[in-house]
Design goal:
Elements (H helix, E strand, L loop, with lengths): L2 H11 L7 E12 L3 E7 L23 E12 L5 E2 L7 E7 L2 E8 L39 E11 L5 E11 L4 E12 L7
Antiparallel strand pairs: 1-9, 2-8, 3-4, 3-7, 3-9, 5-6, 5-8
Length: 197
Amino acid sequence: MSQINKLAYVDNKLGATSQGQQTTRIIFNTIIAPGTTNGLSFFTSFQGLTNGQTNLVQNRLDSAESMVIKSIWLAQFNSGGQLQNFGGEQPSTLSIIVGNQQVVKDLPIQFNQGDSGQAFDRLHADGGSSYANVPPGAFAEKQVVQPCEIRLLTDIVIPPQVSFEVRIQANNVNYGDGAVVCALSGYGKIFSAGNTF
């Protein structure tokens, strides 16, 4: 089933309108100065965040909007705004909760970043390789530090007006004094008023 058909099927089962505008959709949320912790919860707190730190005001989409998640992007920045290895590439897992269901359970993320090994999707493998053997003055061919990106093989649907959350579980990991960001990207429908304007 294509992502478009799956989204229409879920919307129809829930009685949601399917008259919205089709679009590429990216939603993101930031946690400021998380420090050392055993876990992070994205899309649960929006207070005090600017438009550059989140593009939502609540942990659910509007009544006429829905989305299929195709990839998850995680990044960590220091207080100076420089990109860091997410969680220092320490072993950690990611879960996605939609409504009262856990739709992604304990997905290990450390394999999808930096020098840790082969990416799940083989698209981002070795993206964060080090420059140990690069001669001085050589032109950089790839970025040393990259965000963690996971492409999902299944279509995860966020229906309209259903709460959702992304949880990272780790063991005493230092996420620093800057910020960590989680972005969900994929296909979606946004409100369309039709032909009235």
